[in-house]
Amino acid sequence: MALEFTTVIGLEIHIQLNTKTKIFCGCSTDYIGAVPNSHVCPVCTGQPGALPVLNKKVVEYGVRGGMALHCKINKLTRFDRKNYFYADLPKAYQITEYYVPIAEGGYLTITGDDGKPHRIGITRLHLEEDAGKLVHGAADGRIVGSVQSFVDYNRGGVPLAEVVSEPDITSPREAREYVSAMRQLVRYLGISDGDMEKGSMRVDANISQKVSDGRWGNRVEVKNMNSLKALERALEYETLRQRDLLTRGETIAQETRNWDDADGITTPSRSKEESNDYRYFPEPDLPPLLLDDEYIEHIRATMPELPDAKRERFLSQYGLPYEDVLVLTETPELANYYESVVKAECNPVRASNWIRTDVMRVLKEQNQDITSAPIAPDVLAQLIRLVDDKKISTTAAKDVFEKIVQNKITLEEAIKVCGVQIGAVEGDKLAGIISAVANANQDVVEVIRSGQDKKDKKLKFLMGLVMKESRGQAKPDEVLKALSEFFSKN
Amino acid sequence: MELYRLSASEIVNGVKTGAFTCTDVVKSCLGRIKEKEGDIHAMLYVAEDAAIKRAAEIDAEIAEGRDPGPLAGVPVIVKDNICTADMPTTCASRILEDWVPPYDATVVIALKNAGAVIIGKANCDEFAMGGSTEHSAYGPTMNPWDYTCVPGGSSGGSAAAVAAGYAPLALGSDTGGSIRQPAAFCGIYGMKPTYGQVSRYGLVAFASSLDQIGPFARSSEDMRLIMSVLCGFDPHDSTSENRTVPNFCKNDSVLKGKKIGVLTKLVEGKLSPDLQASMDAQIDNCRKLGAEIVEVSLPKALEYGMACYYILAPAEASSNLARYDGVRYGMAYKDAHSLLDLYVKTRAAGFGPEVKRRILTGTYVLSSGFYDAYYLTAQKVRKVIKQEFAQAFTQVDAILLPASPTPAFKLGAMSSPLEMYMADVFTIPVNLAGLPGISYNTGFNSEGLPLGMQLIGPRWSDAMLLEMAATLGKDSEGKIAEGGVR
Q: Least C-beta-crowded within 10 Å: which of A117, A246, B23, B297?
């Protein structure tokens, strides 16, 4: 009988919190691209005698993250020292919450492989400091072949929230879904930019296989996955590798492996797996942190609407299809834009259509995001209303939209530039267009008059010309009526 | 009279009234250092030029009619484990040889802002680990009253410097008695303030939950002066407490109606006869000054304090001292072929034996599998000791104890580390409980060595404690050691 496998994945995500200053000192966290060791001070370089002072904003962000993940918030928490030697760790210990994390026991809901909501358990969220960065002297920046290494402490002391999941994730796709949902959550909360490429969100995966014959493959830790795509690919590769070994009756080495994005494989981590004894103990330089009920309630009361709740509300409040809602709630900024348009009094469904197709196309062309929307929400709403009130046609509206976006002009100016007449083309105006079209197409008119236009082909041709002349602002049935009047008169 | 003999308050008066200049005072102190340093070796760095330059600035300020502050023109010596941005801070260790910190400790800034002139850095046991200053990597300090004896430790250089007249004031640090014991050995005042009373920012950490900076002085008035400058909340130290600075003002009748606790049974037989006699005399003195003597009992503090301390302090030290790895500052082994090699060779060459012993002990007690048995148990004992003191202070206002079981001992006399550790039995529990403690001189023994007593009070009783010590010590204060070999 063929073996069946179940993939078991747990993720650890380090999320850089986007506070202005570091977790234990006043240095700026805006270090990307900065001159090495220019964002440092005695505290974050571990100078003898320097002491940490906890950044209150970091605590607030930790509580917000914990609440968003449905965790229990620990009112009495404290920091511990994780002791180990490495050149990027200036004090030779990392200050972290080991014994009592600020938040524990929650969940994050994703769309499971079966298409249904799947709750991924959150073991804990704890706060800690980031380490510095080593730069090696070899040409490719790697340690192999380099005769010297440099250390940049700009990143040292940047606040991190580490979120540890339960091993509830059952496929590489779910892993990607989970990280993507986490990224969306931190962006909604405004506590991190969640950018994996920039390293502000770093994911380590633990992956193993359960075999239908009762065997359990050893757990493998996979690191160095720098994008959602890399994460999924690495875990797919690792799934196949582990299943292959297990199928052949071999055992999986319990080890740490690095994802090589270029070659598309994982390789055993070169740094030999040391069984580190971190000698955790309470950080004596920081008193225990006591969060009172009032503080916790204040945070709870000021929590933003989170993705799940927003999606639910959009579905019921605006009557949009689920696919639309998914797109519109991708970021809080886009959702806000959508709601601003709707609030400026226009049809919610049409607002959704315009934003998802026209606005987002322009953003993509201009390589911008919704924070620099090409058209103000109230202008878009006005435009949509003109169409709804049959003041202008959809075709005309698209023209006007393009002019506003490309030429950065007002709605009124755009309407003028496009030569659009506000209001429907009818009555004398329509009659005028018809006689002009008839004059220009005497041959066609003759054919119709002679009764040879059996299938009304020529009539439809004329009608098309009239519609074009009216820039779509004439109603087809009115045009038809006016045309038959024209032929009956003459 | 030579100006180095003056107290800090006399100097402040003199420079402000123009009786003499700050430059005169600083030069006199520097001369005294030159005269005695060959015998005493209390200093690791003398900032001669910088001190004279700073003195001239103070003089100029006064000449312009400005007030340089409450310590105007007073020379101060700082223990070499307190960061000074313009002088090396070695912690008496090879591993920080020539290291100049990129910043001033909060207390150093406070001294400078008060008009003090920092004239140099004092010797100590390496990273403040020891009770004799024999563990300095740069050689021991001799007791200014008898060059064959130790000045105590770890702040032995600071205590010896003040006793010998190098400066009227010095800073030390006290983790398990490192201010109170050398003050007693050198016949001066030495105070360990309540934990949280004085900022630790810039004090190179030995055991963070026990360390506290405090002053040495020959006169009680000078202690009031400097304590007023040192105390206060520091936003850079999360363990410093935001509360009003105590009012340090003279109070001769502080002992009237007070209850003073003694530990007759626990102390008996543990003291050298001269200290026992001094202790008895102090008890009589307390009574004469209107205090009631009450027998208290601190069985756990005195029985388990030592063991508790020698788990917690090394545990914290093993972590605090891990940063000396040759990467950022201090000594670095030049020919390392790997990061590990750099760590191992730098630390092997940079640390002395006592420091290594404590790092090893601390690493061991924090190791997985031993943590619960050692560190956690010690934390529980610490809590019990705190409660024991809290209980005692419901019965008495202060406790009178010697600072050490004996007066200053001979250099090299302590043959084993354990013997040395036992000498701290009366001072260590105070650090464990975060209490203030002060040593004062009660006189001299037949060999001319100072005899010191210690007063311990409840948390935040620093001002009262200082007044008690001042009242009891006033007849024997202010002497300057002239040295010699007995």
A: A117
